[in-house]
Amino acid sequence: MRDFDENNITAAVIDRYQNTPDPRLKKIMTSLVQHLHDFVRDVELTEAEWTHAIDYLTRTGKLCTDKRQEFILLSDTLGVSMLVDAINHRFAEGATESTVMGPFYVQNPPEAAFGADIRGEAKGEPLYIDGSILSEDGKPVANAIVDVWHSDAEGFYDVQLPELEEPTLRARFHSDAQGRFRFWTIMPRYYPIPYDGTVGDMLKASARHPYRPAHVHFMIIAGGHETLVTHVFVDGDQYLDSDAVFAVKNSLIRDFTREAPGIAPDGKKIDTPWRKLQTNFVLSKVMAKKSAPAA
Amino acid sequence: MRDFDENNITAAVIDRYQNTPDPRLKKIMTSLVQHLHDFVRDVELTEAEWTHAIDYLTRTGKLCTDKRQEFILLSDTLGVSMLVDAINHRFAEGATESTVMGPFYVQNPPEAAFGADIRGEAKGEPLYIDGSILSEDGKPVANAIVDVWHSDAEGFYDVQLPELEEPTLRARFHSDAQGRFRFWTIMPRYYPIPYDGTVGDMLKASARHPYRPAHVHFMIIAGGHETLVTHVFVDGDQYLDSDAVFAVKNSLIRDFTREAPGIAPDGKKIDTPWRKLQTNFVLSKVMAKKSAPAA
Questions:
Q1: What is the pTM of this model?
Q2: Using alpha carbons only, what angle is made at residue A85 by residues A79 and A90, rounded to the nearest 5 degrees?
Q3: What is the CA B207 to chain-centroid distance, rounded?
Q4: How far apart are CA A264 and CA A130, in angstroms?
């Protein structure tokens, strides 16, 4: 075919995918071309805007390193990550809701024992986390992998701090026979997503702020259950209603209670005020997914 | 707002752009979010597919250098470049049609005199190009900038050949008082777009070939007229009906005539068979654009 114009080119491009061996890839490319072309037609994209878009995508790719993933940030700030999360986690009624992974997870975090202190050199208000992993039928889930990561008291993750040599405020626990895990850390703080790059440029040009409310990330992996990637948010945070990545769910907000100096639940003597989070995570059994809700 | 699900998140993200100072950016971001989310919902993108897409975009960015622009190739092979071209070049009736710029244009090509030979060290069938620049009213356009670039006899552009130190098969001419330009070069060949990268991966997975039919690129800039970015295609090429970037228009195909050894039009004696292209370019006057055709 020849002589494509703005009306017939979309069908011609889609036709070029007709021999794609993998039917799933064929479906994805067909839909991608249709929606991408619809967008370009809808806004009548100018050549200067197209050039800007090419340059923007290129710069976004160049910013990515093993410590920073600007395309994930872009997906997060455009709400795409939360949309993918929602589509893929139609969990059983009563199961803990999922939310975005974010760009700061690190594969194979350091193993930590029941009751460990993962503060390292980080300074901040002590936080004792007392969690339990349950199955959707209420039974405890033993030996689940519980990966934890969160920001420091200034709002930074360890991977953003080049002077840190060891993973900090980041660990892998295993739930005990009663499904429990416990550890000491410090309170996380609200923080801006990295906004000195292309995503920051987009947020600034759109008069959007880059902040996320304070939270602790969890990824919980247990045999026979759907993997749960979620956060626990700190109640009262000023950014709960305007999270830059659209990840807040009411069911994930917890009271991080204020505790007086004295004896902590693990028998440790503590001289300063401290905080406590007591929370359950309820895992959906594999195959217990809800089907897609009606649009 | 909190508690976004797959149905309400799109409106929530769009709402976040309501204070965008530039109305054009607000329109673009609103449309982009709507179409991007519609695509994700349409295919019910899985997390593994999302991860693959993040990685694909990242690798595409990393491939870009000052000599290679993989995002332009991606735009070209998805038909987006031709769509943007069509939307932005609703030229006057009778004007030469535009087509894609492609990734091989280089700013400020070397100046060349009327009648110059731009072959450098390149070997191939000699080609004499005899062109004229006209305005839409048929009058010649003097002193137009005529940038020319094309592949060699193996299908490579100079920027793809690291051993070349000088620009080759690439020049800037100026039309004379009668609107004419003339030069010697060699016949271009059909060629694959670079397919050792992410765009090549996409083409292979989709059983699409990477070839473009043989052509010479022109960009023509003249006061009072719309800039024309176009190709002249070689009639008879086997890829005219399946150009990997959807750029062929029938009105841009020319007979590159086969000529016998003897005396060339510029008086030069030539001992081998050679080819001749005689062609006009008709420029649209500024402001003479057609409005958008009805869809």
A1: 0.88
A2: 135
A3: 23
A4: 11
* Rounded-to-integer distance, Cα A255 and Cα A232, Å: 10
pLDDT tens for residues A184-223?
999 999 999 999 999 999 999 999 999 999 999 999 999 9
Q: Where do the structural domains in chain B lie, given as residue ranges?
A: 1-45, 74-283
CATH number of A74-283: 2.60.130.10
Tell me the per-residue pLDDT of A60-91, one tens digit each, with 9 for 90 and over. Answer: 999 999 888 999 999 999 999 999 999 998 87
Return all residues near B163 (Cβ < 8 A) that are at least 6 apart.
none
**Least CB-CB distance to A207: which of B19, B248, B292?**
B19
- Taking contacts as CB-CB distances below 8 angstroms, the residues of chain B near A20 are 205-207
Cβ-Cβ contacts under 8 Å, B251 against chain A: 3
- Unique residue bearing structure tokens 């878009």: A53
Best mutation site among B17, B49, B50, B72 for testing chain A: the one with the most A CBs within 10 Å? B50
**ipTM, 2 dp:** 0.88
Q: How far apart are CA A258 and CA A270, in angstroms?
A: 13
How many whole angstroms separate alpha carbon A29 and alpha carbon B2? 32
Beta carbons within 8 Å of B119's beta carbon, 6+ residues apart: B126, B168, B169, B184, B185, B186
- For residue A191, which phi and psi values (nearest 5 degrees)? -160, 155
Max alpha carbon distance in chain B (Å)?
80
Residue contact B207–A20, C-beta within 8 A: yes
